């Protein structure tokens, strides 16, 4: 009985079982991402009222906030998969971690970029050394470090394990970095504009933002599934089942 | 068990003594980096006094970074690392000994040289004292975390740059609290909180980093 349960729990940890599942799921998540993005942007750009204080420029939050949430959350998921990989020694979890990293870095960059575009008219500067901005920038460096390390190691097994250790060390440090930067900032200068003290948000704004957050979730899942499929094919290219998959694709084309 | 620790420590210190030039180069690098700043920002004494703690801490950070490859790379090339990993002794012990040797041969000379550099920046004596204390409490974290980075990048092409990218973001909190300790002391709020956080960070790194380091070494040698 117990072996049966274990079997079902780890069934999809095998790359050859996960590969077709990822292929079936990815288009659905991609479709959901497109749908949610259209709804969210429509709500955000046409339905939500103009902000009394900031005017139209506030509408960048419908991209900015979900991107910032996602960039932080993806690092946590990477640490989660790394821990799974270290404990259970599963190959797929390391592939998931590596598939997540570029998307996390992308969202991090989008959050910084849109934040700069919002900051210029609102704060009068593209960049201030605010705690949130600074820790987001450091998070981007953590993503770059992870990607650089896993790309620099040629042996995939070593790359997987080294990446897992780095992701875990980074995850322990992320809260330390955040609070230290926050403290540093309050010691040096008062916060320019506090996002947390913003006047309570209109319901439509909140709805648009949540829909956009769902869209970025769906996008992340879809992209990661596709990327993981490529990684699986690359890593398992010497096995028979990959040969069969590629032969079938060749026959289709 | 303790004998392994002491033996590895003794060996690494002896190796460092035989290659004393390396230690001197690190020290010279520290001095030169700190001396570059007045040329860049101007020699106005008030300005120099304000930026001194930050400059000395950044210089210490960079000097430590450039010396990190010494912790494991030579043992990696001549096979000692493999033998140590094959031995029945717990890796955490000798990893700790190696990191301690690195700290003694890199950070301690920096701490000794720091007062002389503080003179160049016209820091007051008491502020220099706080700076030294913050360096003493903070540099163990640099060696410990840096050791993890050095183990992860062992034998990789472009290892030096990669190491910088990996560990510098993690060093930011240490820089904040280290330089912040002097600033807080000068502003009258007292440096206690900063120093205690640095000390606490050192203890936490001491407890956790050797394990990560040992795991990274096993992967590197595999």
Automatic annotation (TrEMBL), chain A:
<feature type="transmembrane region" description="Helical">
    <location>
        <begin position="100"/>
        <end position="119"/>
    </location>
</feature>
<keyword id="KW-0997">Cell inner membrane</keyword>
<feature type="transmembrane region" description="Helical">
    <location>
        <begin position="21"/>
        <end position="47"/>
    </location>
</feature>
<keyword id="KW-0813">Transport</keyword>
<dbReference type="GO" id="GO:0005886">
    <property type="term" value="C:plasma membrane"/>
</dbReference>
<keyword id="KW-0812">Transmembrane</keyword>
<protein>
    <recommendedName>
        <fullName>Heme exporter protein C</fullName>
    </recommendedName>
</protein>
<dbReference type="InterPro" id="IPR003557">
    <property type="entry name" value="Cyt_c_biogenesis_CcmC"/>
</dbReference>
<keyword id="KW-0472">Membrane</keyword>
<dbReference type="InterPro" id="IPR045062">
    <property type="entry name" value="Cyt_c_biogenesis_CcsA/CcmC"/>
</dbReference>
<comment type="function">
    <text>Required for the export of heme to the periplasm for the biogenesis of c-type cytochromes.</text>
</comment>
<comment type="similarity">
    <text>Belongs to the CcmC/CycZ/HelC family.</text>
</comment>
<dbReference type="InterPro" id="IPR002541">
    <property type="entry name" value="Cyt_c_assembly"/>
</dbReference>
<keyword id="KW-1133">Transmembrane helix</keyword>
<feature type="domain" description="Cytochrome c assembly protein">
    <location>
        <begin position="16"/>
        <end position="188"/>
    </location>
</feature>
<dbReference type="GO" id="GO:0017004">
    <property type="term" value="P:cytochrome complex assembly"/>
</dbReference>
<feature type="transmembrane region" description="Helical">
    <location>
        <begin position="162"/>
        <end position="181"/>
    </location>
</feature>
<feature type="transmembrane region" description="Helical">
    <location>
        <begin position="67"/>
        <end position="88"/>
    </location>
</feature>
<dbReference type="Pfam" id="PF01578">
    <property type="entry name" value="Cytochrom_C_asm"/>
</dbReference>
<keyword id="KW-0201">Cytochrome c-type biogenesis</keyword>
<dbReference type="GO" id="GO:0020037">
    <property type="term" value="F:heme binding"/>
</dbReference>
<keyword id="KW-1003">Cell membrane</keyword>
Automatic annotation (TrEMBL), chain B:
<feature type="transmembrane region" description="Helical">
    <location>
        <begin position="127"/>
        <end position="154"/>
    </location>
</feature>
<keyword id="KW-1003">Cell membrane</keyword>
<comment type="similarity">
    <text>Belongs to the CcmB/CycW/HelB family.</text>
</comment>
<keyword id="KW-0472">Membrane</keyword>
<keyword id="KW-0812">Transmembrane</keyword>
<feature type="transmembrane region" description="Helical">
    <location>
        <begin position="51"/>
        <end position="72"/>
    </location>
</feature>
<keyword id="KW-0997">Cell inner membrane</keyword>
<feature type="transmembrane region" description="Helical">
    <location>
        <begin position="161"/>
        <end position="182"/>
    </location>
</feature>
<keyword id="KW-1133">Transmembrane helix</keyword>
<dbReference type="GO" id="GO:0015232">
    <property type="term" value="F:heme transmembrane transporter activity"/>
</dbReference>
<dbReference type="InterPro" id="IPR026031">
    <property type="entry name" value="Cyt_c_CcmB_bac"/>
</dbReference>
<feature type="transmembrane region" description="Helical">
    <location>
        <begin position="21"/>
        <end position="39"/>
    </location>
</feature>
<feature type="transmembrane region" description="Helical">
    <location>
        <begin position="194"/>
        <end position="217"/>
    </location>
</feature>
<dbReference type="GO" id="GO:1903607">
    <property type="term" value="P:cytochrome c biosynthetic process"/>
</dbReference>
<keyword id="KW-0201">Cytochrome c-type biogenesis</keyword>
<dbReference type="Pfam" id="PF03379">
    <property type="entry name" value="CcmB"/>
</dbReference>
<comment type="function">
    <text>Required for the export of heme to the periplasm for the biogenesis of c-type cytochromes.</text>
</comment>
<protein>
    <recommendedName>
        <fullName>Heme exporter protein B</fullName>
    </recommendedName>
</protein>
<dbReference type="GO" id="GO:0017004">
    <property type="term" value="P:cytochrome complex assembly"/>
</dbReference>
<feature type="transmembrane region" description="Helical">
    <location>
        <begin position="93"/>
        <end position="121"/>
    </location>
</feature>
<dbReference type="InterPro" id="IPR003544">
    <property type="entry name" value="Cyt_c_biogenesis_CcmB"/>
</dbReference>
<keyword id="KW-0813">Transport</keyword>
């Amino acid at each position: 009985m117990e072996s049966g349960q274990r079997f079902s729990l780890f069934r999809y940890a095998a790359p050859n079982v996960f590969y077709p599942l990822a292929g079936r799921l990815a288009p659905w998540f991609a479709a959901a991402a497109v749908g949610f993005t259209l709804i969210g942007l429509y709500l955000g750009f046409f339905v939500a009222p103009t902000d009394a204080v900031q005017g139209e420029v506030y509408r960048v939050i419908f991209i900015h906030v979900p991107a910032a949430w996602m960039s932080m959350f993806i690092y946590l998921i990477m640490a989660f998969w790394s821990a799974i990989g270290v404990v259970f020694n599963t190959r797929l979890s390391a592939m998931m971690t590596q598939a997540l990293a570029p998307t996390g870095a992308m969202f991090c960059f989008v959050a910084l970029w849109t934040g700069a575009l919002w900051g210029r008219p609102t704060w009068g500067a593209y960049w201030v050394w605010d705690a949130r901005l600074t820790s987001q920038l450091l998070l981007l460096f953590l993503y770059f470090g992870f990607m650089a390390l896993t790309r620099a190691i040629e042996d995939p097994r070593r790359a997987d394990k080294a990446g897992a250790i780095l992701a875990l060390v980074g995850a322990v440090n992320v809260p330390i970095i955040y609070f230290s930067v926050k403290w540093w900032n309050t010691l040096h200068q008062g916060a320019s504009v506090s996002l947390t003290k913003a006047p309570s948000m209109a319901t439509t704004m909140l709805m648009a933002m949540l829909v956009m957050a769902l869209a970025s979730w769906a996008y992340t899942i879809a992209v990661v599934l596709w990327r993981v499929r490529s990684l699986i094919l690359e890593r398992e290219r010497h096995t028979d089942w990959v040969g069969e998959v590629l032969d079938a694709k060749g026959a289709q084309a | 068990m303790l004998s392994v620790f002491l033996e590895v420590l003794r060996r690494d210190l002896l190796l460092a003594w035989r290659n004393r030039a390396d230690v001197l180069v690190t020290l010279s690098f520290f001095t030169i980096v700190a001396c570059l700043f007045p040329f860049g920002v101007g020699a106005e004494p008030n300005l120099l006094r304000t930026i001194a703690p930050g400059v000395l801490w950044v210089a210490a950070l960079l000097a430590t970074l450039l010396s990190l490859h010494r912790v494991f790379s030579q043992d990696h090339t001549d096979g000692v690392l493999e033998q140590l990993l094959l031995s029945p002794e717990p890796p955490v012990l000798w990893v700790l000994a190696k990191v301690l040797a690195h700290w003694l041969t890199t950070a301690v000379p920096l701490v000794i040289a720091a007062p002389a550099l503080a003179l160049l920046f016209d820091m007051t004596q008491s502020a220099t004292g706080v700076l030294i204390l913050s360096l003493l409490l903070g540099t163990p974290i640099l060696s410990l975390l840096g050791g993890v980075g050095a183990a992860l990048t062992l034998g990789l092409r472009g290892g030096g740059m990669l190491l910088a990218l990996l560990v510098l973001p993690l060093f930011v909190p240490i820089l904040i609290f280290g330089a912040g300790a002097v600033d807080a002391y000068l502003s009258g709020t007292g440096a206690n909180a900063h120093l205690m956080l640095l000390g606490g960070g050192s203890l936490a790194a001491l407890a956790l980093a050797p394990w990560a380091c040992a795991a990274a070494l096993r992967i590197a040698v595999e």
